[in-house]
UniProtKB/TrEMBL annotation:
Residues 55-68 have a biased composition (Basic residues). It holds the Pfam family LytR_C. It comes from Streptomyces tateyamensis. Gene3D superfamilies: 3.30.70.2390, LCP protein. Residues 437-519 form the LytR/CpsA/Psr regulator C-terminal domain. Residues 410-430, 524-545 have a biased composition (Low complexity). Belongs to the LytR/CpsA/Psr (LCP) family. The chain crosses the membrane at residues 69-92. Residues 1-68, 398-430, 524-559 are annotated as: Disordered. This is Transcriptional regulator.
Length: 559
């Protein structure tokens, strides 16, 4: 395919427009030109003209004038960049499309609750669409109408925001598809259906992402917070925007491997080993199935995971600078269809930035535990059930608790040094917490604890700002957290209301109390039976997981 791909910046077009007419202030063209053409101080020719005009006798005055020019130029640059930033947000927002929320089931798993610092796990559904519409057939789509989900990955970002795992769903998996909205009517439950049939419900070029989201929630028992769909055009543009990524092939690949209907070997597409791909070549890499390993979709998913790992590594390695992010943001927002709650540039950027501090080694990719069932794939039980249970409990693949545990906000490094035992219980009415506002979280499965705790706080003259459930409900001991030195004294008073609690400095301003099982046992008897710890995952799941920093040639085929 020749010529510029859709989704890329058209710099040449912008230059032609500039020669024809000036851009509207604050408009999209102004934003693009501000991003592409930064304001520069006067050049050498301007300096020579100034020197010839003023002469040597006005050297000092010339210096003062140049300082003024530089100052005004710098100020103008700031104004233009700020204006361009606002216009770019408007421009990017105009790129994004969203699907209708009416198709999202009302029978959903509960949403995760934030902990004392507002942290909670996030589940994002990533769908790669092989829609033949919107010019996608030129990049490798067939002639069939409608859209199918070529790739589906559920990305679980743990509450600690230091770990993440992407779970690939084999598209040929035989599963139960719940009711979905098609042409204004809800379908019946479909047992033993292929997983990717959910996205095809309604047979439209845009697919049915709401139906796929319903299916994932139904199968996993996990609430999907956001859904993103990217098509062929978008994928190709995004890979070109980052300058390509490094991938690896275990053997040479030819045209006949990419298109088995070709009838002959054809030309070489990929040589064996590491190479950089972008655009059409990147798309071919993640789509090729035959000619590598056993030619199954399982091997292709392994290469898709390797590609995403390389893409994440490339973006993080390039740094969060405008040179990298502006072209990528343009390509991404043009190519994405998202859920209504994510349909703005600032929300997309916020989600991306929330992952910036996750170490590459702690970003994992796996496939649902599976086995072949004829020409299709079946999930292996109870392994897959244990996987969903582990993720819901925020356990990593190797069994670590990444929910924040008993001390969700303890500073990393030496939590013991940052905490101190609380003072003994004070006599009723002897504590005066007037003026201090406290947020109370229930860190157990015992109901009603925040009610009794709030009553104790009000008796001690504290103001209860808010109550709720902690993200993790496995806290053994009550923890009192304060954000500033000025709040430390109030925290010590709080400790007299909750004897046995631990006092520690949190990461944000404010006073919080996370009630533990010790408080539950002392206030109303034995706590309700806590949920059993999830069963350990088979070692094969962790052993076969890919980390984003793995060798690009490792684990890229299934034999």
């Amino acid at each position: 395919m020749s010529g510029q791909r859709p989704g890329a910046f058209d710099d040449a077009g912008d230059r032609r427009d500039l020669s024809a007419a000036a851009p509207r202030p604050g408009g999209r063209r102004a934003a693009r030109e501000a991003a592409a053409e930064p304001v520069r101080p006067s050049g050498r020719a301007e300096a020579r003209r100034a020197q010839a005009k003023g002469g040597r006798g006005r050297k000092k005055q010339g210096k003062r004038n140049r300082k003024k020019v530089v100052a005004w130029t710098a100020a103008a640059s700031v104004v233009l960049i700020t204006a361009a930033g606002g216009a770019l947000y408007t421009y990017f927002n105009g790129n994004i499309s969203s699907f209708d929320a009416a198709g999202i089931s009302t029978d959903r798993p509960p949403a995760a609750t934030a902990d004392a610092n507002g942290n909670k796990p996030v589940n994002v559904l990533l769908i790669g669409s092989d829609s033949r519409g919107n010019g996608n057939s030129d990049l490798g789509g067939g002639g069939d109408a409608g859209a199918r989900s070529d790739t589906t990955i559920l990305l679980h970002v743990y509450a600690d925001h230091k770990h993440a795992v992407g779970v690939s769903f084999p598209r040929d998996s035989l599963v139960e598809i719940p009711p979905c909205l098609v042409n204004g009517k809800w379908t019946k439950t479909q047992p033993n259906a292929m997983f990717n049939s959910a996205f095809s419900m309604g047979n439209t070029d845009k697919g049915n992402p709401a139906c796929t989201q319903n299916a994932v929630e139904h199968l996993t028992g996990m609430r999907v917070d956001h859904t993103l769909v990217v098509d062929f055009n978008g994928f190709a543009s995004m890979t070109s925007a980052v300058g390509g990524v490094d991938v690896c092939l275990p053997n040479a690949v030819y045209e006949g491997d990419l298109n088995p209907n070709l009838g002959h070997k054809g030309n070489l597409i990929f040589s064996k080993g590491v190479q950089q791909v972008s655009g059409q070549k990147a798309l071919d890499y993640v789509r090729v199935r035959h000619g590598i390993g056993d030619g199954s979709d399982i091997g292709r998913m392994q290469r898709q995971q390797a590609f995403l790992s390389a893409l994440i590594k490339k973006v993080k390695g390039s740094g969060m600078d405008p040179t990298t992010l502006l072209p990528l943001a343009n390509a991404a927002t043009k190519s994405l269809t998202v859920d209504p709650d994510l349909a703005s540039a600032d929300k997309l950027l916020g989600f991306a930035m929330s992952m910036k501090n996750i170490d590459l080694h702690n970003i994992k990719f796996i496939t649902t535990p599976w086995r072949f069932e004829g020409a299709r794939v079946a999930w292996v039980h109870p392994d897959v059930d244990n996987l969903w249970a582990a993720l819901k409990a925020d356990r990593t693949l190797d069994g670590q608790d990444a929910s924040g545990g008993q001390r969700p906000d303890a500073p990393s490094g030496s939590p013991a040094a940052a905490s101190s035992p609380a003072a003994p219980a004070a006599a009723p009415g002897s504590v005066n917490g007037a003026g201090a506002r406290v947020t109370v979280y229930n860190g157990t499965t015992t109901k009603g604890l925040t009610v009794t705790a709030s009553a104790k706080l009000k008796d001690a003259k504290f103001t209860v700002a808010a109550t709720g459930n902690a993200a993790a409900q496995n806290h053994d001991t009550t923890v009192i957290q304060y954000g500033t030195t000025a709040e430390a004294k109030s925290a010590e008073l709080l400790a007299q209301v909750f004897p046995g609690a631990t006092v520690e400095k949190g990461s944000t301003a404010g006073l919080t109390v996370v009630l533990g099982k010790d408080y539950a046992a002392a206030n109303g008897g034995a706590p309700a039976a806590s949920a059993a710890a999830p069963a350990p995952l088979p070692s094969s799941i962790a052993n076969n997981a890919r980390s984003a920093d793995d060798d690009p040639c490792a684990n890229v085929s299934y034999n």
